[in-house]
Amino acid sequence: MNMYDIILKKRQGQTLDREEIDYFVTGFTQGDIPDYQASAFMMALFFQKMNKEETVYLTEAMMNSGDILDLSEIKGIKVDKHSTGGVGDTTTLVLGPMVAAAGAPVAKMSGRGLGHTGGTIDKLESFPGFSVEMTKEEFIQHVNDIQLAVSAQTGDLAPADKKLYALRDVTATVDNMSLIAGSIMSKKLAAGADAIVLDVKTGSGAFMKELDDSFALAKTMVDIGNGMGRDTIAVISNMDQPLGRAVGNSLEVKEAIETLQGKGPEDLYELCLSLGTQMLILAKIAQDEGEARERLQEVIHNGLALKKFKEFITRQGGNSQLVDNPQLLPTAKNIIELKATQNGYVQHIEADEVGMSALELGAGRQTKESILDLSVGIELIKKVGDEIQIGETIAKIHSNEEKKAQKAMERLLKAYIFSQEKIAPPRLIYGIVTKDGVQRT
């Protein structure tokens, strides 16, 4: 077996077997296959595509290229959630405590954000003392004790994916369903979950801008997960405008606390209910959607989800008193109000521009070395479908530096589009993909 023959076979549109894909992934990861042959192979895959079996083989090979976490000592069926990314996506901070309080173990590996805001770990570090550094044994113990833990990625998970992505990034081969899905799923599968719920975003603030592309990606990932023996489903959700009203690290933490108190934004709460419902079903905690949803609503109403959040923060070294006193979380020096200059309705909010406005303020990282300002961000007072009057506040900019605030203001103004006609609020959930097929709502 040699790489020349594998490249030629795929270039001619033939199907590769498991051994050929393993040969490529292993050889490239170990440095035995040069970049120029790997680039040629990626381009052949890009144009000739991969079928379901090839995609599963690729994902499995990337998963097996590094460490695979054994979480079998955790009691119960461990369910993980993965989002394909968006703006103001605070779901993990709400969803984790809700699902854990309802009885399902949540063992989550998270990374730091590179983009509009920090990742889940960065947001949680708004609590002084909070730590994601722990041994595998401590991680397992936390989940067994309180049903919830969030850890920084430990070990060397799917190193083939990291190396391949760097190559795809400079050879214009990123945008391929099999390669995107394999990249995401290889890391999720290596992280040790028994079942996976995927939140696949669609719209202007999502990686996939078109709805059909989002469904196609969801189906590919669901096929991979189930093809490798893990119960996997995907929910397709709207990211044409930011989720919730907060975009920024401590602002999103405050919003998560409000949601756990039953006072948060309706769209964030509803998405957490939708994702949590599927997690409880996969964890065999609930028999059907009605029972699962009722359990999740109950732990919000009786305060158990908020209590679980406090317990989680304390267990990982954070000061949980800030949950009851969120005003003590990092707070920006200045709040600048963006006023409406006309009457009418909010027709559209360009999610990416809101995210970039937060990035201008210092809420996110432009490079891995960037230092986050946890206190800054954007607060959306008016969202799509809301009526506005001249002089009314439509958004607030939380800032510590005047120059950055001015740049953020300019971008945020461009993000809002208004109409004289009443606009219906956008749909939040577009459908679900399971091993049995696609259900559009």
Automatic annotation (TrEMBL):
GO cellular component, as recorded: cytosol
Domain Pyrimidine nucleoside phosphorylase C-terminal: 345-419
UniProt KW Lipid biosynthesis keyword: no
EC number: 2.4.2.2
Keyword Glycosyltransferase applies: yes
GO biological process, one term: pyrimidine nucleobase metabolic process
Keywords assigned: Glycosyltransferase, Transferase
Superkingdom classification of source: Bacteria
GO molecular function terms listed in the Swiss-Prot or TrEMBL record: 1,4-alpha-oligoglucan phosphorylase activity; thymidine phosphorylase activity
Reactions catalysed according to its record: 2'-deoxyuridine + phosphate = 2-deoxy-alpha-D-ribose 1-phosphate + uracil; uridine + phosphate = alpha-D-ribose 1-phosphate + uracil; thymidine + phosphate = 2-deoxy-alpha-D-ribose 1-phosphate + thymine
Described purpose of this protein according to its UniProt entry: Catalyzes phosphorolysis of the pyrimidine nucleosides uridine, thymidine and 2'-deoxyuridine with the formation of the corresponding pyrimidine base and ribose-1-phosphate.
Subunit record text: Homodimer.
UniProt record similarity statement: Belongs to the thymidine/pyrimidine-nucleoside phosphorylase family.
Entries under PANTHER family matching the protein: THYMIDINE PHOSPHORYLASE
Record protein name field: Pyrimidine-nucleoside phosphorylase
